[in-house]
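pasting for the record
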Amino acid sequence: MKSSMKRWRDGIIILLMAFSLLACQGDVAEARHYPDKIHLPVDYGDMVFTGFDETVLQDVLEEIQELYDSGALQKKDVQTRLRVEELYESMKAELNNLTTQVSLLGIQYDANGAEEELAETSAELASRGSALYDQCYQALALLVDTPYQNIIEADAGEINIERLRNYEALSDRMFELHDEEERLVQSYDRVMAQPQVTVDGEVWTEEKLSSADLSNSEYRNISEQLEQAQNQEAGEIYRELIRVRTEIAEEAGYDNYIDYAYEVVYNRDYSLEDIQQVWKSVKKTIVPMEDYLMEGISSRDLRGLHRDARSDGEEILDAIQPFMGRIDPELGETFDFMRNHHLYDIEYSDSKLYVGYTVGLPAYGTAFIFNQPYRNYQDYIDTIHEFGHFNETFHCVQHDLWADFNIDVGEIHSQGLTLLFTEYSDELFGEYGDAFSRIILWNMLDTIMDGCLYDEFQATVYQNPDMSLEEINRLYKELSEEYGYQYDEDEEEGYYWIQVSHNFQSPFYYISYATSALSSLDLWLISLEDREQAVDIYLELAALSLSLPYRETIEEVGLRDIFRQETIPEMAKELRDYLGISAGNRRSSNIWECFK
């Protein structure tokens, strides 16, 4: 899986991580309608990366400091209040411009294969943006416990006021570590964008290999060496990232990066100990069922679906657009806005990195979808998935100063929408509709398993930061086999983990795919009995946005708690019953090889 939601480009998010925000922005879910928000009708083609001029923001910061130094913030005064309100609104507007510029630059960076000049500019802007956010938090802290505290409290909430009260500026060392982290991630991007190896004095790339006239043994030999060379380069970068991130956690006062990531980066209301029970349950109940799911799909149907689903981006959008409004009129209107203003780049390009995400453009009140397609049926799934993120980001009214990063919830917005779309599979693909629905379900189970796999894999590595690359590869092979992966008898190491960019760019993100996929599956199981109720729950989730942590959100909308010991087995049984699978049944055909 390569899709994700990015409210921030890598690097600038560090201030939000450091602040560890937990604010809830009102009870928008009661009416189920989205809060009022201005969406500027600007085409993406008219949005130009200009860089960020921080002059206005620095003037704002200086004036707040002057008001504090003069004692004006300690006295009630109508004119002072009006001025503080103006300064706060100006700060938010300037930060929206900063975030939008970072997003526009990030899109260019990914569209141009981590081109060196863009990489340098991106790293510089991310670093400077982090410093500016730090300065803003320091300035806003001056308003706490003054007559003007309520100006920001309306946006921030009581919890964040307390955090501002105790806010400490990031150390120079923390900035240095995050800059080093960003440089390492960019190095990984370049390795993955341009893998190459020298064999018998000849330089080989993936593109050259794919078009070469070679025997099977020659092709396999070069392919294996190319894979190993890429693993060697990316793997050593990974080991360096572990070192840097371990120091980041220690600098922040944590014993290890795992706890830091769970608590600070992702604001999770569950712990590593909690999720270990989910790993075990998934291995026991979900892994065996994956092998069953493709039962009943003929190779003919899979080939037919593959043929009919091979579409360019506009054809995919044309196909799915009518169904958005059938789920919910506002969902349809948001999709129309996205298309009318071309807020997406989902066409194939040789220059693109293999990534997919949704990113906010807050200066315009909109969002943007980026994806490098596979050019098969997966592109329909990815487009629906990313629009779920787009819809949430498009309607979210939280400012990034106070934004929550409850990504376990955010991925329900995407994966839940994908599962609800199985209702329209027959209308999309006719006689191959059932195959498409089963593939979506298979994807969901695969997501659950991979989410747990990569979380367990990373947890083990970060708990043992001195592991060699060979030990890491062997660990991955061992764990991936427990989650259903298969290897040739002569293979002793597993290399595929380096292809999963989250391991490098967003460590410990991946478990959010598993938690959210389990809740999305729960939502879909409800839809089988009561479609209207399931849609209502989905819309309530979308209206809540990311304002509450995962377990609190699930309880709020009435879905099952996956941390209860009986929940995952119950859901697995319900899915088996739906598919007509007995507990001991196994698929004997070789259909899956065709599907792969």
